[in-house]
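Incident review: delayed structure delivery

Summary: a single-chain prediction request sat in the queue longer than the usual turnaround. Root cause was a stuck worker, restarted by the on-call engineer. No data loss occurred. The affected request and its eventual output are reproduced below so the record is complete for anyone auditing the incident later.

Affected input:
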Amino acid sequence: MVNGLVQPDVAKMEVGGNFERSAEDGTNDLRLRKVLQMDEDTDVQRAGGSLSQSAIKQLKRQKLLDRIQSKRLDFLRQVDSQLGELFDEVTQEVDTFQQPFTNGNANVQRDSNSRGQKTFVPRDSILTDLFEMQHIQTIYHIFVAILIVLMINTFVYDIVDKGSWMVDFSMVSFAFDRMPIVLHTWVYMQLATIVVYCAFNHWAHNRNTYGTWFDWLYCAGYLGYQAGFGFLPLRQICYHSLPPTAALIVVCEQVRMVMKVHSFVRENAPKVLKTKGVDGPKQYVMCPDFSKYLYFLFAPTLVYRDEYPRTPSIRWNYVVSNFGQVVGCLVYANFVLVRFMIPVFRNIGKEPTSPKVLVLAIFGSMLPGMLVLFLVFFGVLHSWLNAFAEMLRFADRQFYKDWWNSTSFAGYYRSWNVVVHDWLYYYIYKDIMLLLGYHNKTYAALSVFVLSAIVHEYIIAFALGFFYPVLLCMFGGIGVVLFFLVPQQPSRMWNIGLWVGLFIGMGLLMCLYCQEWYARINCPRVYDSYADYLIPRSWTCMMQNVH
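Output delivered after worker restart:
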């Protein structure tokens, strides 16, 4: 039984047997039989008279079993997707019914349980299930073959052009330089998150003794902690001039820990506040054990729970396989950038630039940009998170949904990164509606977009070492408009439009950021102050070298 559905016993289905069917699916079964019969007749004609009667029957039987197995997997996948969407819709409807009816000026006090809770259930990632199908495995093999061809292409190019027999991994070594500093910074950040637990535990056990001022004192301390935690890692990045990948690791871990700490405090503070005024031997404090908090810090989720569904054992071969895929994605990205991006942009500032060159560079960056997007998705959201989920026996592995089937950017935003989307939905979107009223969904959605766009640009800016708000404008500007553009009747054309938009967007991002990166290498500084960090140098460089 899979997802509550009984699987058909394929072994008991005999060729030529009468399948039981209802009046609704009779026509579909008849069509299926006709298709199977045509395929069987074709196979028999190809085989000719050289096959015996038993061999022909065996061929027919195998053909039928293969077709039934394929149809069964397709059916189960479709039903599982529809049930998941139905479950999400029902959960949201239940949350809506639980909301109290109030007038416009009434203060609404809601119990934490009425906020709607994310339900964790044991389930595999979509690609994990899809890879069980031979057709999807073939697509995976195609991407591996492309990687091999890129390696051979780069190897031959280095031999012919540079006379070197060694593949150039200088960009990888540069990107991951100064990793000991990254490790030290990460350890300090991790210890700082443990301090939060100690402070929260002390507040939870002593708040009833000291009164309200004690609550406000710890609230101010928590805000001060968040501000300090946002400053110190950035100081390490700027002081040591960390390269892009090293800086990206520090900033992403900083954002991840801030989100995890906020989730822990947001989920447990209301429980502690409920204990106010409780006296006698039944008094208790809702502060989780440290082991639960420590597990949450490493679990592949940003929503805190005291307990998560767990798998019975750890498959270490699966862990090694996923980490191997992460390394493969890094190597893949290296070859994509070395062969398709760096040769186009490394002479920015050295040669005259024209609008024609810029347009060609944008369209030439679309395909490499989408490959990088695929690699980020597969390497981080699938392989990396599944590896940690397996090591921690974390059973709910819906880190993403089938975003590639989306017919609107709203659906794409919700399904691309479920881990971050859940945090934004439960701690930003729903809390803003709690403060402003549940009729202000538009303001809550816009607030989520603005915050997400700022955080994305924040990560890119400190990872690359300059502020060039391309992603901020695309995400917080065009992305907001596309979010509200939802088709009334989704169709194949809307999905094609989504993919066209992704190709164009990734082409713009890759082109403009690469252009600015090499402009800062090849072009002289124009400003000696912080203005040089904020003003794109590629603009001044292009004006000086315009053709």
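Verification: Confidence is low (pLDDT under 50) at residues 1-36, 42-50, 91-114.
Action items: add queue-age alerting; document worker restart procedure.
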